[in-house]
Amino acid sequence: MLIPALFLAITWSSPAIADSVQVLNLSRPETIRPETIRPETTLGLQALFQTLDYNWAQLENGVPPFILEGIPSDLNGSVSTTDKKLAFFMGLLPMILLANQEIARERENILQILARSRVMETRSGDQKRLEDIMARYGIRGNPLNDHRTRSHLLRRVDTIPPSLVLAQAANESAWGTSRFAQIGNNLFGEWTYRTGSGIVPEGRPDGETYEVRKFSSIFASIRSYMNNLNRNGAYAKLRQIRENLRSTKQPVTGIALAHGLQNYSERGEEYISEIQAMIRHNKLSKVNSASLRRPPVKEILTSISTTGSGLFSTRNRMIGHLANVWANP
Fold this sequence. Notes:
single chain; mainly alpha; Lysozyme; two-stranded parallel sheet; disordered N terminus
């Protein structure tokens, strides 16, 4: 479907995008530096998907990496319910995979440092790198000589199934249309107790001081949510389920890990059933095997018409918006 309001043409160095796609393997995490964009409209977001040959029905071709600063404000009323869901899922999936890539890289760093330590070949900077990761995941101790700390660390530093992330994001943010999602880029209902730093929810009981957190971008919200599941004591069961699945070489799925979300909502088991139903109804399990796409290093051309409502917030950000996405992988 051609979006008349905006046309983006990209000439690839290979005649067929599918032929040139390289899919990244999270077991060997690489660094991708995606472009940050802010679509003004849902139609603009759909135009981006079309330009990148990004199709929900063909995720095996890889997911192009990009970061959305926010969800288009017209998502709830400008398209059909089916298109709204697809736009929401497809907009978030690249960032979920990028966040998981970061976690996978941290886990790989840990395993490499532990392996070097066993043969007495630690490198300069290994201890500092471990300390940085441990601080991010709220862990104390020395994993180099304490097996309990080591097990604790590896139990926390692990990826989250994209199906679970998408289902919770849709549930908690009303498909990105809630006040907290639109004003604060908060997709997961995370709170803060720093007065004045967040959004005061309507109907907050007298005497309560909590606020709903504000994030600089949707990506920041996703990263914070994943870190919350990985370090908060309330989700120890989720992490134990994941570790058990890993140790028995079973798939780590959103439906399985949802059993560890009793403390995410006051509704407890009812909430868990709701998240699992969303995964099943929207057939989200397929995204657990999705991988980031790595197109050729040399992007040839990005041309954008000057008419229409526009895909991005300013023309300066429109020009060459894709040229730098993969230029320095």
